Amino acid sequence: MGRNVQSLILLGLVINSLWLVDATSPVVLWTLKRIGEGNLESNLNEFSPQQFADLVAWKTEQGTFPVIAFGLDSLSLEDLASQGGIGATEPYRKLRKITDASAETLLFPAVQSAGESISILQQKGFQVVQINAGDVLPKLETPNTILIINEKSNVNMDDEVLRVFSKYTLDFPNLVGMLWGKRSTWTEEPEDEANEILSRKKRQAPPPESNATFVYNDQNGLFMVFRDVALTVYPDKNTAIYKTATASTQDANGTTILNLVFAPRTEGLKISKFELKLTLQKGIMGYWSMKNATAALSGTTNTSKAFNFNDEWLTSAITLVVPTHLSFHCSRFGSLRPIDRKENSTFTIDFRGFQIQAFMPASTQNKFADAYECVGFFTPGIWMGIIVTIMLLSILSWGMYMIMDVKTMDRFDDPKGKPISFGGND
C-alpha cells in the first residue's frame, strides 16, 4: 500500500469525523486479482452491512475464491494513519508489503458492523470459519470460505497477516484479504488494559457550569444550562440581566424548537415582553445545529423611549454547529442581534456560561457529553503570542542588518610615518 492509500487514509480521517457512529469502523480490503474498477468517491461513503456484503461478494466473484478476514477488537483510521499504523515502520510494516504487492487495495473509512456483513455473506452461501491468532491454520475445503482470524493487538496482527498469507497464497492465488474492527477505537473504551495504549480514550464529560442559575431538561434529548442572559437595547445601551426563564420545547421531524420566555421587568430597563425561540435541527452528515433564532421584545428604556420588536430574525458571529454526540459550550454565546436593524434601533442578546446538547439518547440526560467549544483557533492569547513574536523577529532582523552594515577601517595611522590624510570622498 503506497502513497495513494496513505492519502486515502488522511482524507478518510476528515470524512470519518462527520459520522462518529459507535458501530462504524474502517475496513482495509485488498485483492490479489483486480475485479472491476475501484470507485474512490463511493469508497468514502458510509457502508451499511448489506452494501458491504454485496461488495465483498462482487470482489470474490460470488465466492469463486476465499476471504481472509483479520478481525481486531477495535480499529480506527487514527490507528492506520498515525504512529504505529500503515505508512509507519510498525506495527503494519508487513501488511504494507503485502498490500503493495496486491492488485488492488481499497480503504473504507466507515462500515457499519462489518461483523454483520459476514453474517449476511454466510446467508448467501459462504462458509465461515473462526480461529484465534496463532492457532493452527485449517485447510480451506471450498473456495467460498471466509476465514476469520481474531486478535486483540494491532502489533500481533501484523505478524499474523504475514503468516496466514504466506500459507494460503500458494493454494489460492486470487485471495481476498480484509482488516476490520468490531468497533471503533475512537468511540468506545477498550475491553482490557493491554490494548489501552492503542485506544483513543474519551475524555470524562464535564459537569454543567457550577455557577449556572438556569437548568432545563425536556427528557427528550435536550439539556441546557446558562449562568445569565444579558439583554442590551440600543441606542441607549440599557442592559437587563436575566438569571432564569420559562422554557418549553416542540419536537417534530428531527427539529426541536426551544422557547424561552423571560419575566417582565418594572425597574430600570422596563421589559413587558421578552421571548426567544431557538430552532435546533439534526443534520444528515453527523452534525446538529441551530437553524435559526427569533425574538419578540417590547418595553421602554431608562429614558422612557418605547421599543417594540416582533419576531425578529437573529444572527450571531458564532455559528452553533456541533458534531453528533457532543454538546456545545460557550462562555459567552452571542451577540444575537436582529439581521435588518440599524445601530440606533436594535438590541443584542448574550448567553453567559452557556452549554446545550440536543438529540441525545435518554440515558445521557442530566449530564453533558464532551463539549465542542465555541472558541476559534486564533484566541486572544494566540494573537498576542504571534504579535510579540513578530515584534521580536523585527527587532532581531534590524539588529542583524545594522551589524552586517558596520564597515571596518582598511587604513591605519603609523606614528613614525607621515600622517594619513583623507580626501573628501573617503
TrEMBL record:
Residue stretches spanning the membrane: 382-403
One GO molecular-function entry: ATPase activator activity
Compartment(s) of residence: Membrane
Sequence ranges assigned to domain V-type proton ATPase subunit S1/VOA1 transmembrane in this UniProt record: 376-414
Protein's membrane topology: Single-pass membrane protein
GO cellular component assignments: proton-transporting V-type ATPase complex
Major localization class: membrane
Keywords: Membrane, Signal, Transmembrane, Transmembrane helix
Sequence ranges assigned to domain V-type proton ATPase subunit S1 luminal in this UniProt record: 252-359
BP term (GO), one: regulation of cellular pH
Presence of the UniProt keyword Glycoprotein in the record: no
Signal peptide region: 1-23
Protein family per UniProt: Belongs to the vacuolar ATPase subunit S1 family.
The name this protein goes by in its record: V-type proton ATPase subunit S1
Species for this entry: Orchesella cincta (Springtail)
